[in-house]
Amino acid sequence: MQQGTLMRKVKSKSWKKQRYFKLQEDCMTIWYQSKRTGKTESAFSISDVETVREGHQSEVLQSVAEEFPPERCFTIVFYGRRGNLDLIAGSAEEAQCWIQGLRQLIEPRSFPLTFALVSCTWIRDWFQKADKNKDGRMNFKEVQRLLKMMNVDMNEDHALRLFQDADKSESGTLEGEEFVLFYKALTQREEVLSLFQEFSEDGKKLTLLELVDFLREEQLEDEGTEELAMELIDKYEPSETARARHVLSADGFLMYLCSVEGSIFNPQHRALWQDMNQPLCHYFISSSHNTYLIEDQIRGHSSIEGYIRALKRGCRCLEVDCWDGPNGEPMVYHGHTFTSKIPFREVVSTLGKYAFKVRHPSPGAGGPGWSLVGEDTCAEGSWSCWLPTVQDPRGQGPWRCWVTQGVSLSSTPQELKHKILLKAKKIGRLEDTLDGAADEVPDVSDEDNGAEAEEERRRAKVMLAGGAPIRRTQHGSALQKDKETLAQALSDCVIYCKNVPFQGFQEARSHSRPSEISSLSEAKARKLIRDEGNEFVRHNTWQLTRIYPSGMRTDSSNYSPQEMWNVGCQIVALNFQTAGMEMDLCDGLFSQNGCCGYVLKPSFMRDKETLFNPNDPSSREGPGPITLTIQVISGQQLPKVANSKEGAIIDPLVRVEVYGVPADQAHQETKYIENNGFNPRWDETLQFQLHVPELALIRFVVEDYDKTSRNDFVGQFTLAFANIKPGYRHIHLLSKDGTSIPPSSLFVHIRITE
Questions:
Q1: What CATH number should be reported for the domain whose range is 113-187?
Q2: Would the CA dihedral through 166, 198, 628, 739 be positive or negative?
Q3: SS3 state of residue 732
């Protein structure tokens, strides 16, 4: 892999260009250049690569399957929303060389990165970037250029002093360990050192008892503190001598604070920590809208990548819009639009591969398999042909048996592991299906019963039950001719989530069943929240509700899911392809509980007689408001703004946003720090009062201040209030796409008081 390899880069069946690919000497960067011009087209870092897929595992490579065998084909998949790179090697041997080599390089990242490993990679990466003449040394001019690249605006005299202190050989250049010394001096954390010395009697080490004091007094660790202190020393102290003496050095202390245990996110909540034996309606469920789309709603591209990305992100409710295609084969796309189409069989095959993979393997996560809710309607001639032919990837018979076997009307997420539930219209009653009979005429009235704005009514007719138009009947009365007939094979698969029109809370109490579900547009849901907040909460204690975006959101923008969660709506469907605050909230809520896609609702939202109304926080039973105090201390190695000018340095500020019931919605921000994205210090305290902390999400946003225009996004991190660990904590920032950007972080101090 060290030599340039000639391969075909494929974008479509007709676009196949030959490019030379080469792994750089740093083993961290791959560049490729045109065979014809010799000009370097692009480069990417190994750290950007999520996985490598062999064979025809993309739509692009499937389109050239007859021309090129799978042994020569592979796909490089990047983190976030960056497009895949589809490649065809000259031989099967070359393809395997790249596939196995790339997997070896990215494999270590399947384990949690330690602070030391991140720092080592970071140092090597910056050295390679700044060493322009590639002689393995760095003169002071190159160091000055490096500081600009690293977001540091440092006084030249101070920079020269650090350079000379690190130049032990007095050669006028830095190499190897000398550059490491320079980097360590540059990254000296005075705020951490002063905290360390506050608890250290001699200022050089923390004894076991001193570390226990810190954990109890500041980190509020109240159980097994001495055992925890021993574990932290064994895990993070770099000196063998210090470990043997059960003491923690300043370096070990910093490594602990930058670790999982020092994160703001409670590590115990990363694993499966909630009760999974309650009815489905007692959980918030990670849900996507028009999952197959990866762009806009009118002309966007439909792709199985939409399903793969959503599933790997922890999504548990997917949307499959099926339409009759050529030769009776169903196709998936956004009906009555210009979006592209994908075969239904490819979607189902993709579900078989990715539906039950663990997003973030962790001890106690319960393994893969939390149940999946799929939305679908399908023409009568299509469903019965294709669904039974797809096999259960676990080798337990046809997919159709996998969908329905062992499901009862009172099933819980625990009982539904490795099951797929279909949300759709149904012929007859659920009870009849379980008894083997199904002969009633389906109710196919519009979901919103004609009460929505014109675009929502039009959408309901086109997207019946969130799916596709069903083939119209050719017999019966004039009224029946306007109805649509469901495929019996599809109807038989609907065991739990029978779709019914919503006709008011009183009607639902009188005639609906817990096994049924109604879909509401965001506009209708907002009106119900405003007018009948408590009734909405009560309704969601015993029946599922799905919310979908307005038909006017043709750009695939999102509404805020928080207001829907405030009344207990379980299936709040978002456009996963669109980055922004709304998806940050979704990722923040579902990043807990083993990333299984299910989060248990607060107890007052599971009581059928609850008095809770999000518009009146005093209706919540329990303790009074709590105060969240956040001291924003410092930032570390913040990234530059995308597409910024060369030499530009950010002016960072931190904004803390609270999302929850209306009374808790708030935001505050720090001042901006001029020309320092490397190690800015704010030392500012922000305070919030939370009336319903059980529903609150906290979003930390770093922006580049601009006095003449809108601030630029730098990074963010969002989590549920219930997952916050008090004390001195690091917040590891995420990009706009929700991917990590190590080692960028914030250092904060958190206090929670009643």
A1: 1.10.238.10
A2: positive
A3: strand
Give residue 454's pLDDT.
Answer: 36
Q: What is the pTM of this model?
A: 0.83
Task: Return the CATH number of the domain spanning residue range 190-262.
Answer: 1.10.238.10
Positions annotated as catalytic residues are 289, 334
Regarding the domain with residue range 623-753, which homologous superfamily does it belong to in the CATH classification? Answer: C2 domain (2.60.40.150)
- Segment 25-71, tens digit of pLDDT: 666 778 888 777 666 666 788 878 889 999 999 889 998 999 999 99
Per-residue burial over 73-101, b = 16 or more CB atoms within 10 Å of its CB, e = otherwise: bbbbbbeebeebbbbbbeeeebbeebbee
**Where in the chain are all domains bearing CATH 1.10.238.10?**
113-187, 190-262
Average pLDDT value over all residues in the chain: 82
**pLDDT tens, position by position, 181-190:** 887 787 789 9
Continuous H helices in 205-273: 208-217, 225-236, 240-244, 250-257
Class of domain 5-106: mainly beta
Q: Residue 407 — pLDDT band, cuts 50, 70, 90?
A: low
Q: In this predicted structure, what is the pLDDT of residue 366?
A: 35
Beta bridge partners of 152: 676
- CA 666, 727, 635, 159 torsion-angle sign: positive
Could you give the residue range(s) of every CATH 3.20.20.190 domain in the chain? 280-361+368-430+480-605
Identify the architecture of domain 280-361+368-430+480-605 in CATH. Alpha-Beta Barrel (3.20)
